[in-house]
Amino acid sequence: MSAVNPSIWRVPDLSARWWPVFLRNLLVWKKLAIPSLVGNIAEPLMWLVAFGYGMGALVGQVTVQSPAGATQVPYILFLASGSICMSAMNAASFEALYSAFSRMHVQKTWDGIMNAPVSLDNVVMAEMLWAAFKAIFTVTAILGVMLALGISYAPKLLLAWPVLLGVGITFSCIALVFNALAKGYDFFTYYFTLFLTPMMFLSGVFFPREQLPPVVRVVSDWLPLTNAVELVRPLFMDQWPAHPWRSALVLVVYATGAFWLALALTRKRFKA
User: Fold this and answer.
1) Helix (H/G/I), strand (E/B), else coil: 12
2) Residue ranges of the domains in the chain?
3) N or C end of the chain: smaller count of CB under 10 Å?
4) What's the pTM value of the predicted model, to 2 decimals?
């Protein structure tokens, strides 16, 4: 019976055949690369300019707790180090939700791909990695603008790039769970409104988490965006994160668990 109806929770059956699916998405995206890039970086840069320079002029310095003790940093640097993580989150989520859903449900691209010897597991893997690529492409452009503005020239900032790639992978995995459950585009509103937006305000992007009530801060400690910010912000300050292994482990657990759940729900949807 198990051979006829294999469990949706079975071990992922992955091979190198995800790569042509990834390349297919890349070739399609190249036709609209410039408008896509402008759309992805415009909003985070507006947040940075409006809040970083506008509110930064009122706030001035912000106290950040670090292994070296309490450190005073300009508010625009504080905001930039958090908003870059938020940008990775949003870019990966948007691609793994709206774009992936279009290919899966509206355009039936996945069905066409699976007529070739490509398994559903490899298609989901390709979509996850593609969304992560879109995220790292977006944040690379934003980092370039931040460097041009002189927000930070810390040598350790180079290490933020692989960390942000991990952030993109984590949130693309989480988004694919909701993609598998969605019946239409309107369903994604719940994800953005009830999950991503509250997390933006609880993860230390706009203000230090020390301002949160103790109970809320305990919850915030285990949010994926919080741990992303905890890894990236010290690098902007040319310091090492206080708890790098714990924060990295939280992201790995979210990514692994979410990918497994997304794969199971997608198999159920396709009855594969």
Assistant:
1) coil
2) 18-270
3) N
4) 0.92
